[in-house]
């Protein structure tokens, strides 16, 4: 491909609203252009990267025995009503009406569509196991689209759905997908860590997310010292290190409680209260009021811990939990900043976190502005784990303490169970000719987000440093010529390269060499070949490897030089492989 026939809308300046490297660089390198909030046009150079990632995904999915489909993006609301998700998906789901006023959605995911489709196709146990997938645009009306294509509203996803006869079969399919995912990400040059993920209130028996460690990651991972525990913070159970929390819980009525009301002016925050009373947060009971699908619930936990809303949601089997507003707190018979379990509207259920498993006396809110009680003893029969695990907590696997790492989620594998086969009453005939309900798994990879994660991981101050496997072109040929004759000589060499199958982008533009070099570095082609004065005078071809900026001079006749270029390309793939092996985490 010649640059003179291509479009290279590169930019020197950083776009204003792009705060992270991948967002900045994909715009500056002319890969993507913004179209609207969370919407991006993909330009030719960017599309080549996306296609390469898609092809890696496709090859490994096919190698794992999965079958590629393509389903409509627009999905009828009836499907979503059948699964119950029409009501539970929330505002992320784009809902639209057609000319007949029928409701449809732009698919945020395709469990319903695939289950419905496969119900009509799969007849017998002989058809199973089967894993079906597509590589497809998805739509989600994200509340806060940001970071370019890391969180956009339209994005490309590979979504796969497996159908097995039983749990044992699902286990095998799940492990096959897990291995395929490791290969896919390794081939894109990404370091990924699989971590345990939340499976939600709907159940499901297991789930892992593939995370790329990155300071700009929106997810917090907790990883233990010896690596035995790797989990998403949302999912991680809290293990308490301090012996105090493991004191025997105060038995109901075993202790006479003497509450003492104290005046605590302007102590609506834990920090203010700690300071005013000179009592540490570990002795303060924090009470919070939430609305779980509109119904008020109270949560009590030790004030030095934070609530994990995902755990609360799962415990309540709720679709949505939101903190109550000041008005809703007043309606519950309390006041914001001073909520407490004593004297709160009795119809409100209280959930007790495990951190209050102790016989100690607590400071609690008095449900009255500027007042707290001292001497509260929690007489609780049941506590649940509702707190957010943090770095420094003991590992749930018992191997030392947990460390916090930020990560970008690029993929997700999930044992779905029977949720959708049940909802769609899908059965196949078993060996005895009896109807049998298959069990499902689902497996997603964000293709566009993967591209952004690669840039995030592989860039320097000059631009992107593409791993050779996903580079828009493997080689950029920069020609510095002064005559038509010289152009002709470069043209011959370019043709010789493309004839043997090398993927070359020839920057033949009539521009200063410096401009061409700057663009080549910004776009990040892995191999740069320069043909200029040294070539025309002595036959020397200069090469620079983008990663590490290593310079080489190739000598010899054109066959010998071509041979050396082929070898450099091979070495870059080999280097990617060896980096992959080094990065391989224990599974
Ligand atoms: P997140 O927690 O980041 O919103 P999710 O849990 O909603 O992700 P899944 O439903 O598991 O994501 O979707 C599968 C994959 O699709 C994710 O692992 C991610 O790579 C990608 N993805 C999800 N939402 C977006 C988005 N808004 N923009 C780009 N990629 C996305
Ligand atoms: Mg999401």
Keywords:
YbaK protein, 587 residues, 3 domains, BirA Bifunctional Protein, domain 2, alpha+beta, binds adenosine-5'-triphosphate, 9-stranded mixed sheet, binds magnesium ion, Rossmann fold
- CATH fold type of the largest domain: BirA Bifunctional Protein, domain 2
Round the Cα radius of gyration to an integer and report it. Answer: 29 Å
The helix tally amounts to: 15
Tell me which CATH architecture of the largest domain applies here: 2-Layer Sandwich
Secondary-structure class: alpha+beta
The portion of residues forming beta strands comes to: 25-35%
Structure summary, number of beta strands: 28
Largest beta-sheet characterization: 9 strands, mixed
CATH class descriptor name of the largest domain? Alpha Beta
CATH homologous superfamily name of the largest domain? Bira Bifunctional Protein, Domain 2
Low-confidence spans: none
Terminal CA distance: 42 Å
Bound molecules: adenosine-5'-triphosphate, magnesium ion
Mean pLDDT, all residues = 93
Number of domains: 3
Helix content: 25-40%
- Shape call: globular
Describe, in plain words, how this protein is organized in 3D.
The protein is an alpha+beta fold and 587 residues long. The chain folds into three domains: 17-237 and 402-457, Bira Bifunctional Protein, Domain 2 (BirA Bifunctional Protein, domain 2); 254-376, YbaK/aminoacyl-tRNA synthetase-associated domain (YbaK protein, Alpha-Beta Complex); 475-583, Anticodon-binding domain (Rossmann fold, 3-Layer(aba) Sandwich), CATH 3.40.50.800. Helices cover 29% and strands 26% of the residues. Strands 3, 7, 8, 9, 10, 11, 12, 20 and 23 form a nine-stranded mixed sheet that branches. A hairpin with a 2-residue loop joins β14 (285-292) and β15. α2 (44-63) runs antiparallel to α6 (167-187). The longest helix is centred in the C-terminal third of the chain and has 26 residues, at 558-583. It is globular and about 100 Å long. The model has no long low-confidence stretch (mean pLDDT 93).
């Amino acid at each position: 491909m010649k640059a003179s026939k291509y479009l290279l809308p590169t930019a020197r300046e950083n776009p204003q609203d792009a705060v992270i490297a991948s967002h900045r660089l994909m715009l500056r390198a002319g890969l993507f252009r913004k179209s609207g909030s969370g919407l991006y046009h993909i330009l030719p150079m960017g599309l080549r990267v996306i296609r390469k990632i898609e092809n890696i995904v496709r090859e490994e999915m096919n190698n794992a025995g999965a079958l590629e489909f393509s389903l409509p993006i627009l999905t009828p609301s009836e499907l979503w009503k059948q699964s119950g998700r029409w009501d539970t998906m929330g505002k992320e789901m784009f809902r639209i009406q057609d000319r007949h006023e029928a409701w449809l959605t732009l698919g945020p995911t395709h469990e319903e569509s695939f289950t419905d489709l496969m119900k009509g196709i799969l007849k017998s146990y002989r058809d199973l196991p089967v894993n079906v997938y597509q590589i497809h645009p998805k739509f989600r009306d994200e509340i806060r689209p940001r970071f370019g294509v890391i969180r956009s509203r339209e994005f490309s996803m590979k979504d796969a759905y497996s159908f097995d006869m039983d749990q044992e079969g699902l286990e095998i399919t799940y492990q096959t997908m897990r291995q395929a995912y490791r290969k896919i990400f390794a081939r894109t040059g990404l370091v990924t860590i699989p971590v345990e993920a939340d499976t939600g209130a709907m159940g499901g028996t297991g789930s892992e997310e593939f995370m790329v460690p990155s300071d700009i990651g929106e997810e917090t991972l907790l990883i233990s010292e010896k690596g035995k525990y790797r989990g998403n913070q949302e999912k991680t159970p809290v293990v308490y290190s301090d012996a105090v929390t493991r004191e025997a819980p105060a038995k109901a009525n075993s202790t006479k409680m003497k509450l003492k009301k104290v005046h605590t002016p302007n102590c609506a925050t834990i920090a203010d209260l700690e300071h005013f009373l000179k009592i540490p947060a570990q002795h303060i009971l924090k009470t919070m009021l939430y609305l779980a699908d509109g119904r008020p619930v109270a949560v009590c936990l030790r004030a030095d811990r934070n609530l994990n809303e995902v755990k609360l949601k799962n415990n309540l089997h709720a679709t949505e939990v939101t903190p109550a507003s000041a008005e809703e707190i007043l309606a519950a018979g309390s006041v914001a900043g001073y909520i407490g379990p004593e004297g709160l509207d009795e119809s409100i259920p209280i959930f007790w976190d495990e951190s209050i498993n102790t016989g100690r006396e607590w400071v609690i809110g008095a449900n009255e502005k500027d007042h707290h009680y001292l001497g509260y003893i929690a007489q609780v029969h049941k506590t649940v784990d509702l707190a957010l695990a943090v770095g420094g907590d003991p590992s749930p696997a018992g191997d030392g303490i947990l460390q916090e790492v930020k990560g970008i989620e690029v993929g997700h594998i999930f044992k779905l169970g029977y949720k959708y086969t049940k909802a769609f009453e899908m059965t196949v005939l078993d060996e005895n000719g009896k109807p049998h309900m298959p069990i499902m798994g689902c497996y997603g990879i964000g293709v566009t987000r993967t591209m952004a994660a690669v840039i995030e991981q592989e860039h320097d101050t000059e631009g992107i440093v593409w791993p050779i496997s996903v580079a828009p072109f493997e080689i950029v040929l920069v020609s510095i010529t002064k005559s038509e004759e010289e152009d002709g000589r470069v043209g011959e060499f370019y043709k010789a390269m493309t004839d043997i199958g090398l993927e070359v982008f020839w920057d033949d533009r009539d521009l200063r060499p410096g401009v061409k070099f700057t663009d080549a570095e910004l776009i990040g082609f892995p191999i740069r070949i320069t043909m200029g004065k040294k070539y025309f005078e002595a036959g020397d071809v200069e090469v620079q490897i983008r990663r590490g900026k290593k310079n080489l001079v190739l000598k010899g006749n054109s066959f010998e030089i071509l041979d050396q270029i082929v070898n450099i390309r091979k070495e870059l793939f080999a280097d990617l492989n060896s980096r992959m092996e080094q990065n391989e985490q224990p599974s």
